[in-house]
Amino acid sequence: MHTPFNLKQNNTRILLICDNAANVEKTKSCHTKNMGIPWNIMHNVSVKEAMPHIHNADIIILDLALEGPTTPKEIFRNVQHLSIDTPIIVLIGRKKHNLSTYVMEKGAADTIVGGGFGRLVDAIEFALIRQKITKATSDKSCGDQKDRQCLRDIEAIKAKKISDEKNQCIAWMSGGYSMQNNIEKDVA
User: Fold this and answer.
1) What is the pTM of this model?
2) What are the residues whose beta carbons fall under 8 Å from the beta carbon of 181, sequence distance 6 or more?
3) What pLDDT, on a 0 to 100 scale, did the predictor assign at position 86?
């Protein structure tokens, strides 16, 4: 079962991957009451069902207690691999501190432990802010790298021009003979 994204512009597209009906209702209720930004939510009950929609999401809420043969760590790794740069907020059962620590070390944007849905809206908004800052920093870094490459290219052109001018000067001082002129005559 899934609900498609309503593709209104400027709405945050939230992909909820969860097979627990109570958690789905709590998540939707939390968004309806507290979300300060426009949003659309798509719900899928499995990672397999969600796969075609992951690339459209702005943020993913992933319940690691999904039924199936894979472990919670494998579920997280699979979604993370598919999502590339999309922030993932992980829903984790109570007393799963090691799992919470694991997903945070592996790059989860946040964890919601033991039904703490009161934090969910803040977690989403903070994850989106961090993503925006990271992207801006990355874009600036790319711009800086392009600037540095451009400066290196300019320096290389200057060095070649200086080398060419030195060769011309040497040729003039030696009576018009230079290796460059000799090579050009042989080629012609």
Assistant:
1) 0.68
2) 171
3) 94
